[in-house]
Design brief:
This protein is α+β, with helices and mostly antiparallel strands. It has seven helices and 17 strands. It has one domain (8-298): Electron Transport, Fmn-binding Protein, Chain A (Pnp Oxidase, Chain A). It comes from Flagellimonas meridianipacifica.
Length: 309
């Protein structure tokens, strides 16, 4: 009997939206080893996104960048991170979280080619390196990735400015969110399996209600519903926004909820006709100024981005 690769949360969302057949056709792309062709791609990355869970069970999303070579794939079952080559702040929650919870989810994304690849696994710290034992890996389609290039200055350790935090989104946080056309989301299922994904759209595709709740359209995708399936089982979620103008990284944690059947004319238009959204209520945020130093050049927005009204 073929092993089921989807957990109950993912299956529940697939059934709810009538996408079981589409998901089944793609599930063979999820494997317990890294595809050979993706090894050079991973090792060339200098910026990755990581999902971890803190001691309270709250997932966080982090941005890690470093010198070329801070990532190595010695074999298809293992990923190695060299901490001494990481230039992003060592105060990031990633480093604290992996001390108490070894489940991690990584997203490797190259905006120039609109390529993205995910690796989920478990951390083992050994001889000064962070080893990740691969549990599952798979690629994603190029939809909703804005084509561009972020040139990072990785010659210095992060020049930390202020690192304010809070529980209620203020003007600075709301400004970053309202201008964004991309963010990253880390989630987990009830058994702890962690995943990090990308969300993109036109500028302002994430809307914020007066009470600070984020409303995010769920566009047509691969129908696996990894993120929505995790939210279905385990609402605690972590988001990450980047402001390339200032090198600021905004991390939000809180609870998410999937909303179905939002089928007004406007809701269908802004969701790419799915009528599916998810809302996010922030319980804590950290805004790290000077998290990175770089220059972003936008080539083109994704041609698949639905309208923003």
């Amino acid at each position: 009997m073929e092993k089921e690769v989807f957990h109950e949360g993912e299956l529940a969302v697939q059934r709810k939206l009538g996408k079981e057949k589409e998901a089944n056709r793609l599930k063979r792309m999820i494997t317990p080893v890294i595809f050979p062709g993706m090894v050079p791609f991973i090792e060339l990355q200098t910026l990755i996104f990581a999902g971890t869970t803190d001691a309270s069970g709250q997932p966080w999303s982090s941005a890690l960048y470093g010198e070329l070579g801070f990532l190595k794939v010695p074999n298809r079952n293992e990923l190695i991170i060299h901490p001494e080559k990481i230039k992003s702040p060592k105060s990031d929650v990633f480093f604290q979280n992996i001390e108490t919870n070894t489940e991690v989810g990584f997203l490797f994304i190259q905006h120039e080619s609109r390529t993205r690849f995910r690796v989920n696994g478990r951390v083992v710290k050994e001889n000064g390196v962070i080893k990740v034992q691969v549990v599952e890996s798979y690629g994603n389609c190029p939809k909703y990735i804005q084509a561009g290039k972020l040139i990072l200055d990785n010659t210095f350790d992060a020049d930390l400015g202020e690192v304010p935090e809070g529980t209620v989104l203020g003007p600075n946080e709301l400004d970053i969110i309202s201008r964004s056309n991309t963010f990253y989301v880390s989630s987990r299922n009830k058994d702890g399996r962690t995943d990090t994904s990308h969300r993109g759209g036109n500028d302002g595709f994430v809307s914020v209600s007066p009470d600070g709740t984020l409303l995010i359209p769920d566009y047509p995708g691969n129908n696996l519903f990894n993120t929505l399936g995790n939210i279905h089982q385990y609402p605690k979620t972590g988001l990450l926004f980047m402001d390339h103008n200032s090198g600021t990284v905004l991390q939000l944690v809180g609870e998410a909820k999937v909303l179905y059947g939002r089928d007004s004319e406007k809701e269908l238009a802004v969701s790419g006709e799915t009528g599916v959204f998810w809302e996010f209520r922030t319980t804590k945020w950290i805004r790290t100024e000077g998290h990175y130093r770089g220059a972003w050049e936008l080539y083109t927005y994704s041609p698949f981005n639905p309208t923003v009204e």
